[in-house]
Amino acid sequence: MTSLLQRVKSNMAIFAHRKARGMLDGEYGSVFRGRSLDFDDLRAYVPGDEVRDIDWKASARHGSPLIKRYVAVRRQSVILVTDSGRNMAAAAYSGETKKDIAVMALGVMGYLAHRHGDMVGLVCGDSGGTTSLPAKGGEAHLERLLRQVHSAATLDAAPSRIEDQLHHVARKVKGRNLLFVVADELAASPALGQLLRRLRAQHEVLWLTVRDAGLAPGDPLLQPEQGLPDSYSVSGSRPLLAHLARDPAVAAAYANAVAERDAGRRAMLRQAGITEGEVAGTGGVMTALFALLERHRRAG
Questions:
Q1: Which CB contacts under 8 angstroms, 24+ apart, belong to 217-223?
Q2: Which of 165, 202, 158 is nearest to 182 (CA)?
Q3: 150-180: b or e for each residue (b if 16 or more CB lie within 10 Å)?
């Protein structure tokens, strides 16, 4: 198989009007409060410095107050959380497989974290079980994470249930991390909302929804010349009767149901304090992801 990470990197060319020292230079600070534990050097005390930063032993030897300086802590662990169940083997709005879009999004976020010196881990799975790979550095490790998602999300996989993977994170993942969740279009529920609030209390959370294939007139997969002749639902292998979707009443009911589900999901994520975005195809991953990061930064 061609390197998945190389496929991701080939789509990451970004035009910049001004030079920057690093892709994420100054993008986020430490997730820890207080001072770093990495000692740098000593310098002379100046009015306004914190008294608790004075190195009293060194000051006694030197004959004047000296201040301890530290290297700022800017690294964190980024945990990629995604659904690798049967739903992700279905078609997305663009006509691509959802798992290809998920792998692209996870790869971009993982590569940005890698370039920034952060460790990247993975939690993925379906209703049949959850796989967790520890946070490490290096491109070889990131390639392994992407291959895990790509190979697991097949039509033979168990049904999707991202709630199981989120519960795993809540129980097993310690410390404070940045969680990047890539999931199918979920319906809101009180139990899921409570779980998300619990996760947000401990971690920073970014959420990206992969848009489902459209079944209304004008959607890319429902063109008159195509008609979805061999399409079926991956959740129950039921055929999708495309010609019914061209009925105005059916199309209106479908559009209303999708709008209600989307509104409920967005409200649930907003109430939990989670920044969310949506993507319909691999071509929109870069735009969607950087818009998501910018909204998260502005949200404070």
A1: 217/245, 217/246, 217/251, 219/93, 220/93, 220/94, 220/95, 221/91, 221/93, 221/95, 222/246
A2: 165
A3: bebbeeebeebbbbbbbebbeeebeeebbbb
pLDDT tens digits for range 134-169: 999 999 999 999 999 999 999 889 999 999 999 999
Q: Give the CA diameter of the chain.
A: 88
Which pairs from 261-266 meet CB under 8 Å and 24+ separation?
261/185, 261/187, 261/188, 262/185, 264/187, 264/188, 265/185, 265/186, 265/187, 265/188, 265/209
Q: Which amino acid is at 112?
A: L
- Is 156 strand, coil or helix? coil
CA nearest 68: which of 85, 81, 49, 84?
49
Structure-token pair, residue 122: 């993975």
Q: Can you tell me the distance from the alpha carbon of 100 to that of 103, in angstroms, rounded to the nearest whole number?
A: 5
Whether residue 27 has pLDDT greater than 50: no
- Positive or negative: CA dihedral 228, 230, 234, 238: positive
Which residue did the predictor score with more confidence, 2 or 268? 268
H-helix or E-strand spanning residue 2: none
| Token code pair at residue 282 | 């691999």
- Could you tell me the pTM of the whole model? 0.75
Q: Give, in degrees to the nearest 5, the angle at Cα 126 between 214 and 110.
A: 80
Do 76 and 109 touch, CB atoms closer than 8 A?
A: no
Residues in the chain: 300
Instruction: Give yes or no for a contact between 150 and 99, defined as CB atoms under 8 angstroms apart.
Output: yes
Are the C-beta atoms of residues 185 and 212 closer than 8 Å to each other? yes
